[in-house]
Amino acid sequence: MAIRHLKIVALVAASSLAIAGCVGSFDPANPRQVSASERQQGAQAHEQILAEFGGAYNGPGSAMVERVGKEVAIASGLTATGQECTVTLLDSQVVNAFAIPGCYTYVTRGLLSIMENEAQLASVLGHEIGHVAAEHSKRRQNRALFSNLAAIGLGILTGSGQVAQAATQIAQVTTLKYSRDQEYESDDLGIRYMAAAGYDPYESADVLDALGDQSALDARIRGRDEAAQVPAWARSHPLSSDRVKRADRKASETGLQRGAQSQHTERFMSSIDGMLYGDSPSQGYVDKHSFAHPQLRLGFRVPDGYYLNNSARAVTATSGNSKTQIQFSGGRLQSGGSISNHVDQVINGILGNARANAQFSDTRTSTINGMSAATRQARVSAQGGQVDLTVVGYKFDADSAYHFVFISPANVDDANIVRSTSQSFRKLSTAEAARLRPKIIDVVTVKRGDTVSGLARRMAFDDYKVERFRVLNDLDDGQTLRAGQQVKIVVNG
Fold first, then answer.
1. Is residue 44 exposed (0-12), middle (13-18) or buried (19+ Cβ within 10 Å)?
2. 103, 300, 445, 450: which sits with the fewest CB atoms below 10 Å from its CB?
3. For 220, phi and psi rounded to 5 degrees?
4. What is the mean pLDDT of residues 309-313?
């Protein structure tokens, strides 16, 4: 969660991402260039996308992403000089990449961290630019993939437009959902573009394979169904062994031999050395079941079994064992306003027109960890049944307030979840905030005698050190290191 006073800002609307209607066939041999109207269209969405992902990351890796992206864009024919394309490294740990009309292309820190060389970066960016070049956004409907809270929450159940807008506050991404044929076409275009830009096309299959490994590790660490843990990029770009094999076959059809073109591994490693890994200090840190924000100096804990998800606008928590969904965010407290009024404003903003179908409890005021607090509940009649909503708010200081939103099907006994979570919210001391440190990528050169287990012990994690090290460096089980090889480890900054 990045900003102190959060505003509900809708993600990019379908009208700003796509133009309705049919388009003609696409001929990659006769590419079109980006039009001024498309650039204007993309510019309108760009600022909203930056806000949703915590902004652009301008540290290590950012200049490389822009350079490689523009090289690939030039190879695509969308631009002659690269000036008509905007390529951004997003300050997000989410594993994702996407592009919108106007040649605005994005990749996250999370995805960049699992790559091994510039050729893999060129493959991902080429794929996304392929969607733009082939005008796939004109051939399909947008689909916003919201968090689990939105899926279970009132926007879906009541059909309220205002609720749906509120749900976007906790959405991690707006993802453009493409057909399988469009995905394959973009794979082919990405391979075509990266090869034309001088990069080894065989790395396209390798980065797809690495994404699959990351997905499987995420599922194992979180202890939940693998299908629910697929990274954002893989949800919109489904991964399969057939797709990896197909990418390898398409690379061979270029007539190039593996390794005949550049990978630029050393230059890549040098570029990302010192790059932020995981949560940003400006958004706060998730540590298993706890969240702490060093700049806002606040923290809380959710019950065991919950998985915390930190986005630019809110922190959400879901559990495979509980139907109760949790959201944490904050806002400005009106001058002279009470925390009870703040809670009412939050409820009204969530319910919108559905307020007419709700039954409300009286507001209860209390003191929690030295802060004035208020709690109010509502039961809402929805299309799929009744839903219970509980909001607990805190007056943090003179002009700001924070709150939890708990949503569950009616009559679910979540009193202990609400109580333990809401009672855990507290202010951090100066010393506690100072102890919170970011993680960064440290690129090291393997020395004679170094082993996977030995280097993995240096990883700044309490668990799965070897598994994390192998996935981070695309090392198969049993694969050993060689002297002189560059590898990534994650250390405290």
1. middle
2. 445
3. -65, -45
4. 83
Comparing CA positions, the residue from 335, 336, 201, 177 lying closest to residue 255 is 201
Q: Looking up tokens 């969904």, which residue turns up?
A: 325
Token pair recorded at residue 98: 């996407």
* Range among 19-28, 169-178, 405-414 with highest mean pLDDT value: 405-414
- Average pLDDT of the chain is 83
Cβ proximity of 6 and 405 under 8 Å: no
Digit-coded pLDDT (tens) for 380-421 = 887 778 889 999 999 999 889 999 999 999 988 999 999 999
Asked whether residue 168 carries a pLDDT value surpassing 50, the answer given is no
Place of tokens 């209860």: 364
The residue type at 69: G
d(CA 122, CA 6): 35
In order of their start, the domains of the chain are 31-140+176-272 (no CATH), 285-433 (3.40.1000.10), 439-492 (3.10.350)
Which residue, among 119, 134, 129, has the nearest Cα to 198 in the 3D structure?
A: 119
Q: In one letter, which amino acid is 43?
A: A
CB 209 within 8 A of CB 239: no
For residues 199 and 123, is the Cβ–Cβ distance under 8 A? yes
